[in-house]
Amino acid sequence: MSSTSTDPSLANRKSIVWVYLSGAMAVTFIVMLFLPDSGTGSTTLSLYTAMLWCGLFGTALWRYFNKSGWVGFAIGSALGMAIQIVAQLT
């Protein structure tokens, strides 16, 4: 007999914890885009990380508000790409 115990706040996909976690990661990579010599400002990887984490944040946020996660991911990814482009211009 195996019993698995999971934290109820993490088992619920609509939990605010996921919004905070993905938002913190998105903010981390966005801040690193604007810091000089942080290692993420000029590479192609920076575009993917900004798009990924902003997309995951959008997914978590949209699911929290009972909306489609795919729409949230698309909007978040587009914002992540726009932020990365602005970071390259500054």
UniProtKB/TrEMBL annotation:
Transmembrane segments: 15-35, 47-65, 71-89
UniProt keyword terms in alphabetical order: Membrane, Transmembrane, Transmembrane helix
UniProt source species: Salinimonas sediminis
Protein name (database record): DUF3649 domain-containing protein
